[in-house]
Design goal:
InterPro entries: His_Pase_superF_clade-1, His_PPase_superfam, PG/BPGM_mutase_AS, Phosphogly_mut1
Family: Belongs to the phosphoglycerate mutase family. BPG-dependent PGAM subfamily.
Strand order of the largest sheet: 3-4-2-5-1-6-7
Bound molecules: 3-phosphoglyceric acid
Number of helices: 11
GO molecular function, one term: phosphoglycerate mutase activity
Shape: globular
Oligomer: single chain
Radius of gyration: 19 Å
Number of strands: 7
Keywords: Glycolysis, Isomerase
Enzyme class: isomerase
Number of domains: 1
Order of helices and strands: EHHEHEHHEHHHEHEEHH
CATH architecture: 3-Layer(aba) Sandwich
Length: 301
């Protein structure tokens, strides 16, 4: 029998990201313009881009198995979806990346960034021990400016699917009935056997978002989050102020990035940048259009 872990919301240490006391800074995400290259974030900004992306197809998505917290890699199709997603967001500034601790989300983030026109290098921050932090330091300020810190957080993991993990979704529906399985998969507050309901998943994912990611957006940092169907559903429920009824019909496809603009403390949903609707995604905010123009100029010169 699987048991639900007790989750404690712990403030993530920012010491590897921002200077604090005597702690050595590994990354300084407050980037300054250099070499005529586009600055990806502004020091004083009340506007920032937020990209949410569900991982590409995993090997258990392909087999139609409940996955939850089981750590399964992407399929070839999932790899292609992540690369395609990267193309869609290749003109949107990214200063920081948050992923779950699961490989399918991390693969997706990394693969997507290989397509970004700014060509910064995403670097996973290791804070599992003092030594891991110290040994992964970068000693060139210039190189640091060309890196994007990637923070991994278990709180962004997929909902724990309890005793359904590893079971076939179709067979489970035949055994327990379609309605019961739909309730386990989509309702807000009904947990699957010994697993997490969406509400329980939100308690750690949304808390993490509010305590760790929102402060970065407030600083004007452009953030990408690569996570999972249900951890992202809970975050979208918070961003879009959905009710527990409305969230039932919220479905997320694999590998489709969604763009939000954080402005004056609120979130504006802008859809997924893709031709031919891409222009409208840029149209509403001067900042993004200018960033894109600077990328064009940089890549032409
Ligand atoms: O964990 C899983 O099985 C999937 O990633 C999400 O599954 P769901 O669509 O059943 O919530």
């Amino acid at each position: 029998m699987l048991r639900i872990q007790t989750y404690r919301s712990k403030k993530r240490r920012f010491c590897v990201i921002q200077s604090s006391g005597s702690q050595t800074t590994v990354f300084n995400p407050i980037l300054s313009p250099s070499n005529g290259k586009p600055s990806d974030s502004k020091k004083k900004s009340n506007e920032a881009a937020l990209i949410l992306i569900r991982h590409g197809e995993s090997m258990w998505n392909e087999k139609n198995l409940f996955t939850g917290c089981v750590d399964v890699p992407l399929t070839k199709k999932g790899v292609d979806e992540a690369i395609e997603a990267g193309k869609r967001i290749s003109n949107i500034p990214v200063d920081m990346i948050y992923t779950s601790s699961l490989i399918r989300a991390q693969m997706t983030a990394m693969l997507a960034m290989t397509e970004h026109r700014r060509k910064k290098v995403p670097i996973i921050l290791h804070d599992e021990s003092e030594r891991a932090r110290a040994w992964s330091q970068i000693f060139s300020e210039e190189t640091k400016k060309q890196c994007i810190p990637v923070v991994t957080a278990w709180q962004l993991n997929e909902r724990m699917y309890g005793e359904l993990q590893g079971l076939n979704k179709q067979e489970t529906a035949e055994r327990y009935g379609k309605e019961q399985v739909h309730e386990w998969r989509r309702s807000y507050d009904v947990p699957p056997p010994n697993g997490e309901s969406l509400e329980m998943c939100a308690q750690r994912a949304v808390a993490y978002f509010r305590e760790n990611i929102e402060p970065q957006l407030l600083l004007g940092k452009n953030v990408m989050i690569a996570a999972h169907g249900n951890s992202l559903r809970s975050i979208i429920m918070y961003l879009d102020k959905l009710t527990s009824q409305e969230v039932i019909s919220l479905e997320l496809s694999t590998g489709i990035p969604m763009l939000y603009i954080f402005q004056e403390g609120g979130f504006i949903r802008r859809g997924s940048p893709v031709a031919p609707t891409e222009a409208s995604v840029y149209a509403y905010t001067k900042g993004l259009a200018q960033y894109r123009q600077r990328l064009d100029d940089m890549l032409q010169s």
